[in-house]
C-alpha cells in the first residue's frame, strides 16, 4: 500500500512530496523525473511560466544509487520564482506582507470558497495552494510508482482526445506500439495519435491566444499489461473504479471521469459486456473491451481505459468578479496564459493513476 | 468524519453495516429507512426479487428513541431468500455445499476476475458479494447521513436523465420544489421530472423485457443548501470532487461520473466559469452554475450537481462465456431480470454522496 | 490489511462487528467463537451478568461452510438483557425514555467527561457504550484473526501475572507447552501457570467481595511462532510496538503496556540486547529475549511478549460523586459486581493483538 | 485531524516531514524550531554527533510570515554529515556504493530483522532509516502542533524520572510553574525537577562512559490545560489512551508506556478512582489524579500524565553478533556514543503526544 502527501505553495520556497510504502529494489533513473516533468510542462499553448521554469527535482531520501531502499521517498522542487515573491511569501519575517494580496477572486477557481472557508481577507493563500502547480510534484512523485509498474511489465499511454470541442480520431483498440509511435510522431505539443487533427487544434489555440481565452478538452489514459484482479469488490472503498476516479477528479480543472466509454455504454441495449472466450491453450480472453478493463472494481486483464474531461482553465478570460476592497464589480486581472493544458492533464492523470495501481502491489 | 463498512452476501444470512462518527442528537425516523429502500427497489422494469423481498431494516445500535447517541450505528437487513440457499450458504456445516456452484462466469460482472484473484474454482462467492444487493445496506446506512444533512438545511434530489439512450429533458436550473413536484407526479417508476419521456421509456423497457435484454442510462443528483467551503484544496485527497466520484464510481455498473456537465464544459471556449456577483445586501452570488457547485474541490454555495453513467446490467442477456467444468464455450444462464436499474442508481448515488457530504460536518 | 469496526450498546438490541480484509479459505469453527467468549466471561470474582448471559455469536456474513470467503465478516451478539431495558433503549418510540437516566457519574469511568463532550444531561448513553461489554464483540471478531495466525503456525497464550498486588511467579522463558499445561491445570478461573498463588488470590478476592471493592492486576500475553519482519521501521505508524500498544491501551481499564519487561530493562546498565548467535545449520538465533520479540518495530523471530497493567474496575466501590439532579455530593450507586477482570483482560489483550498481527499478513 | 509523514536516512541528503491538517492562523516563530531541537540534542552523556551537528530546520511550505496558512507544512533538515557519506548514499550514481556496507548486525536494533524482511545483504539501509535520527524531524514537525496547543492554553512539561535505575523524586501533583522552575534550574542536561539526583546520575554516566556502556531510564510528560472530552470512547481506535501510546511506543528504544501510574494502580484495592467533587461555583473538580487525566479514552480535565520506559541504547556496548561476510561470531563495532538519551526521549514523547492532542482540535 502506498501513501503520499504533497506540500508547497505556488510561489513559496519549494514543492515537496513524501511517498511511503514503496517496495525495495525498484530501479529509478534521474532522467525519469526530468522526462515526465518535461512532458507535463510541454503542450502547444502553455503559458510562459512553463517555459521559463525548468523543473529540477531533488531526491532527499528513499532512493540510493538508483534504487528504492524501502524507506519513504522525499522529493523537492524549488520554486525558482520564490525570490520574486519572498517579500510576502517568506515563512518568517516577510518584509512587505501586504504586497501579496489578491483582491479579486477568480471565478472557476477556489478563491472565493476558500476565503470564506478559512476566513481569509484576500485570496493569496488559496491561489497559492489550490494552484495547478501542485501537480508538478504529484507528477514527480509518481515516478517511483511508474518504475514499479514498469518492472511488472505494465505500460501506460496518456493522450489528448479533444481540445475546445475539436475531437481527434482515436482507435483505442489499435496495438499499443502503434499508438505510441503515432503519438511520438506528433510530439509533446499535442500528445495525440491523430496527426490530422493538429492543424485544427493549432489554429484554434492561436486564435484563442489572440483573444486571451482558454480551452478545455478531454483525454484518454491507457494502462497495458495489468494482471487480473487488482482492486477488489469486497468493500466499496476497495473498488478500483472508485479509487481511480478519486485520483483523477482530484486534479484541478478535471470535472469528469469515465472507465471505458461510459456515456456510450449507457446508451447501448443489452450485450454491453465483453464475451469470455478461451483460446487453444486454455487461456481466457476477450475480443472487446467495453468494460474499459474493470469488472466489479477489479482489473480483468484487458487494457485499463480512463477518460477525463477538463474545463477551460479559469485563468485567462476577463470574467466579472468583485473587488474585495471596494465590494464593487470588476473584471478579473490577467493571471496566466495557458490557452490549453489538456496535454499536461493527460500526463497528470497517468501519474495519479500510476500511484493508485502501484499501491495494489 | 464518518467511516462505514458494509458486509453481507446476496444470499447469506444478512446484510449489515456499521457507521461510525455520527454526531449526537440527529433525529431519525423508522420510516426514513423504509422510504429510501422502497424507492431503491422501485423502478419500471425491475426484476421480481425486488418485488418479493421487502427490505426490513433492523437498527442494532447507535439510535435510541429516534435520535443518534454518538455511538456507532449498526443496521441489519435479513435476506429473506437465505432459507432457500442455506444448504450451501450457511456459515457452518452447510448440508450440500456443492449445490451452490456457479460454473459459468458472467461477462460484465467480476466473476472471472474475482475467481482468478482469490483462487476460487467457481463464481459463487464472487457473485454473492460483488452483487448490487450490497447497495441495499449502503442505501440504508445513508439514512443517518441524510438526516444530518436535513438538519443542516441540505436537501437532495436524484433523477433519471436517460434510459437506453433516450434522454429526458431536464432543466437543472429550475427551482428545487418545481423539480421535486414534477418527479413526484411521475413517481418512483421513473424518477424523472420530464413526464413526456415516460411513454418512450416504457415502450423501450417493455420491448427489452420481451427480448430479455437490459438497458443502462444516466442520471443526475443535486444537493441544495450546502454551505460554502465543504471539502478542501489543501491536500489532493481532501478535494470533494475526488471523494464524491470515488463514492459514485464504487457503485456496481456505474462507469462514469461528472461534476456539473463536464463533457459540455470541455468543449467551451473560455468564460466557462460562473461570474461572482454581489447583491444589495453585500452577499456574493452566481448567476450560472457551470462548475456544478464545486471549485477547487470545495462547495461554492451553488447546488452540487453530480451526473452518472450506468452500463446495462450484465445479468439478462445471453452472452458467450465458458463453462468452467468443461472449458467449452456456452451462453450465460438467465440470472435475474432487471431490465433497467437507473432509478435505483439515482437513489444509491444520492446515498453515497450524502455519506461523503455528512462526513464533512 | 485488516480493518474492523464494532458497534453496540451494553443494553441495546445487539453488539455487532464487521471485519474487512481477511484472506480466503481460512478455516473457522463455530466452537472457536464459543471457546474464546467463555474464557473471557470466566474468572474468579466475575459478576453475575457474566454468568447469566452466555454469549451466542451469530455469523451474518463472510464465512461460508466453515471457511472465510474473502468478503467482510459480520458478527452479532444479541443482548439478552435488552428486553429489560427496551422501554428506554429501543431505537424508536421507547415507551418510557426517562426511566433510563443515570444521574450519578461514576468516577474512573467516562461518564462525566463523555456527558460534557457530547452535551448529554445524564450518563446513560456514555455508560452504555464506554462499557467493557464492547470487548465481548471485539473478542469475537478476533476469532478469524486467531484462525489465520494458527494456519501460519502462530500460537498465543494469555495469562494473569498479578491481582491486587499479589504476584504470580512466571517463567516466561519456559517452553510454550509447559506454560500452557500449567495454565490448563489452573483453569479459566485464574489463567495463570503458577498454581501456588491461587489460594492467596482467592482469599483476597473473597475478602474484597465482602467489602464490595474491586481489584486490578497485570498480565502477560505471548505470541509464539511469528516470522521475522512483521511490522516495519520505515514510517513511525507502521512500527509494531506502537500498533500493539494502541490496541492494548484501547481496552477499558488498561492503563499501561510494555513490550517485554520495559520497566526492568530501563534500569539495566548496557548489554540489554539479545545477542545474535548462529547455529550449525547457519540459522540465526538469540539466547535471551530482553527485547520481547520486537526490534525497531519489527518481529525478530523471538516470542512476542506483551505486558499490561489494569486498574481496579470503578464499578463496585462507593465513591464520592455528584447527583446531577441536585448538584449535591452523593455516593455512587452499586453498579456491577466484578471483583476482578484481569483474566478477561488477558483474553481481550490476546484478541486485539491477534487482530494487529493478522493484519500484517 | 492531523496527518504527517516523515522521511530521511540518517546519512542521506536530508530529513523531511509533511504535516497536513493544521488550522490557519496559528503563530509559529523560527526560534520555536531551534529551541525544541536544541533541547532534544542536549543531555548529559549524549554523543558527539549531537554536539557537532546543529539542527537547522528549513520551512518549505505551509507557514507564511510566521503563521500557518492551512496548507501542508513541509520541513527539511539537511544532514550535514551527508557529504562524508555520499559516495555510497547518493540517490543516483554513487561513486563507491560498496563502501557503505554494514556487515555486523547490531542486537537491539532492527538490523537483522530488517535485512531478512526486505531481503538486504547488509544492514546499511536498515540502520539508516531505523535510526533514532528520524526523531529529529518528528520533533521539528511537532512545533506547529505545540503552537496550536499553546494558543488553546495547553502547556506541556517533559522530564526525566530515572536513569540507569536511579530514580529522581518527582512530585507530579506540584503546581506546574513549580515543576517548570525546578527543571529550568537543573537545565537541559538532565531535564528533571529533582536537583538532588543529579550528582548520582552524573557519576553513573561518567562511569559508563569510561566502560562504553549505555543506560536507559524512564520519564514523565504532563500536559496541562486540556479541555474535557478530547478523544472518544465510541470506537476502540478513537480512544486517546491508545492513540497516545501508539505515538509514544513508536519512538525507538521506548518499550513501555503508562497513563498515570499504571503499575501502582494495578496493585490498589478498590477506590482507585478520582472522586467527582463540586465547588461553590458549581464546577466539577477532582482532588486526585490517579487516572492520569484520561477516563474511557477521553481527557477529563485533569493534567494528562504519560510515563515512558526506555531501554539502554544498543549502540555502545560490545555485544556478540555475526559477521555476515563470514558467518562467524564477532563483537559489534563501536557505533556511536550516547551514554543516555532519556532527556531526548522526554522531548520526543512530548512532541509526538502534542501531535496527537493537536489532532483532536
Key features?
alpha+beta, 361 residues, Chorismate synthase, AroC fold, homotetramer, four-stranded antiparallel β-sheet, globular
Question: What do these coordinates show?
Answer:
The structure is a homotetramer of 361-residue chains. Chain A has 361 residues and is an alpha+beta fold. The first copy, chain A, has one domain: Chorismate synthase, AroC fold, CATH 3.60.150. Chain A is built from eleven helices and 17 strands. A five-stranded antiparallel sheet of chain A has the order 8-7-9-15-10. In chain A, strands 1-2-6-3 form a four-stranded antiparallel sheet, covered by helices on one side. The first copy, chain A, has a two-stranded antiparallel ribbon with strand order 4-5. In chain A, strand 11 (277-278) and strand 12 (284-285) form a beta hairpin. In chain A, helix 1 (30-41) crosses helix 6 and helix 6 crosses helix 11. The radius of gyration of chain A is 21 Å and the shape is globular. Chains in contact: A-B, A-C, A-D, B-C, B-D, C-D. Chains A and B meet through helix 4, helix 5, helix 9, strand 10 and helix 10 of A and helix 4, helix 5, helix 9, strand 10 and helix 10 of B.
Give the structure's gist in a few sentences.
4 copies of one chain form a homotetramer. In chain A, about 30% of the residues lie in helices and about 20% in strands.
